[in-house]
Ca2-binding ef-hand superfamily protein (Phaffia rhodozyma), 199 residues
Amino acid sequence: MSSSIYASAPLKASKRNRVLNPAANGPSGSSPHSGGPAGQSSSPHHHHQGRADLTEDQRQEIKEAFDLFDTDKDGAVDYHELKVAMRALGFDFKKAEVLRILQEADRAGEGIMRFDAFEKTMTALLLARDPKEEIHRAFKLFDDDNTGKISIRNLRRVAKELGEGLDEDELQAMIEEFDLDQDGEISLQEFMAIMMDED
């Protein structure tokens, strides 16, 4: 995925995208984290399709997430691997929901999900997302200390969770580029502008 908002920074766009927007959602600009509130079904089998298909970048993100968290490289993910792979793609589901998704895909009762089932499930989930709601939810997951801003500490945590090796200068460059009011942090409005500006 390429985006003009990433062009002037000293980072590679792909690395920065995975931190600020690991589950790129085409022109509408989606968020890094998702998953409905407790009790709300987010089943890939009960969704409305906002778009007919994923972008090539989204398909690549799905493959990269699977490969990254298929730690034993056996072509399948277990519950724990599935949960972190889904989170990297923007779906921070509760344990029961992840188990339900795994059980639906695991017809053989092996306790694993193979790549084809993972790709199908993630495709359905990605196509069902509401971009503005997702961006707001993403912001809250970045802002884990509830300050109303994304600080360099928040970015450092997310980069670490996603396995992205960003040094302090790179993290600071991200803050500075998108910190429109120059207060040293990224507000919800600034975060919205970053995500909705992508095309």
